Amino acid sequence: MVNELRGLRSSARGAPPGARPRNDRAALGFLAPWLLGLTLITIGPMAMSLYLSFTDYNLLQDANFTGLTNIERMTTDVRLFRSLGVTTLYVLISTPVQLAVALALALLLDRGLRGLALYRSIFYLPSLLGASVAVAELWRRTFGSDGLVNQILFAVTGIEGPGWVSSPSTALGTLMLLHVWTFGAPMVIFLAGLRQIPASYYEAASVDGASRLRQFRSITLPLLSPIIFFNLVLGIINSFQSFTQAFIISGGNGGPSDSTLFFTLYLYQQGFVNFNMGYASALAWLLLIIIAAFTAINFWASKYWVFYDD
After folding, report:
1. Which among 40, 49, 58, 181 could bridge 281 via Cys, Cβ 3.0 to 4.6 Å?
2. Which pTM value belongs to this model?
């Protein structure tokens, strides 16, 4: 049926039946670089990674097919479960806190402050630098035993603080704080969403005697829920992929006592330190499945709290 319609359309234009329209060829020509990149940079490596996940490839010898050996190894890998626990705790705490801070500052900036563009740029800057090696190194020195935080703590209270990044009980907390500090990107998105809410809604609520808190709960949150959902999904995905901060602060070993052993860091150790590329490929696919599961749960739960103004 489609071919018949295409033949009729070509005949109507005076072209021989079966000939591809000129516009289609031009579109394919423009799409060709993207399709080539998608195949060579994304689909090709993913297919190779899927194959390697069923092998014992170690960079030095040919890959041998081992079936489900890597998956069976995961079930008894204690450090893998430890890294999953650290990463899950990091995601479940740092992501909501970051979104809460971003929303609070967006509400503050939405009040029409002078120099709004300057404040917005200042707050957005950490998002550009937060995942960099330089900021991670700065963070390690700031929260070190003789870092700026302990110097201020001693000057104000006379108490000598611990090495925040060298103590198993506080190291992960400093990484969460660094993640929260990069609230600029969600804040800008929240600010754009707040500008889309009609002011007449707030004016009508004020006439009816609604307090600021009631307006926030009954107007702002429902109308902003699609933006919150968008930031939540992106935040969870980015948190699962965090790597640089833990690598720099822990020196690449996930210490102290594996307290900062993110899943991505453990994957890196297996692939590029121990040269277990086959096992690392299997871990990469496990991470993909975990992120997909969290995203699917978010989309399923969104029907209960996300409201679209149709």
Report:
1. 49
2. 0.85
Whether 281 contacts 50, CB under 8 Å: yes
CA 139 to chain centre: 20
Q: Report the pLDDT value the prediction gives residue 57, as an integer from 0 to 100.
A: 93
The CB-based long-range contact list for 172-177 (8 Å cut-off, 24+ gap) reads 172/86, 172/89, 172/90, 172/259, 172/260, 174/139, 174/143, 174/249, 175/90, 175/94, 175/242, 175/245, 175/246, 175/249, 175/260, 176/90, 176/93, 176/94, 176/97
Q: Which two tokens stand for residue 217?
A: 């709960």
Confidence of residue 96 (pLDDT cuts 50, 70, 90): very high
Residue 24 half-sphere exposure, CB side, CA atoms within 13 Å?
A: 6
Between 250 and 10, the more confident residue is 250
Between 154-163, 219-228, 263-272, the lowest mean confidence (pLDDT) is in 154-163
Tokens of 95: 């992501």
Tell me what pLDDT residue 2 has: 47
Tell me the H-state helices in 38-166: 44-52, 69-74, 78-109, 116-129, 133-142, 148-157
Least Cα distance to 174 among 96, 99, 259 occurs for 259
**Spatial contact of 18 and 7, defined as CB atoms under 8 Å apart:** yes
> How is residue 20 annotated by DSSP?
P
CB proximity list for 98: less than 8 A, separation 6 or greater? 179, 180, 182, 183, 186, 235
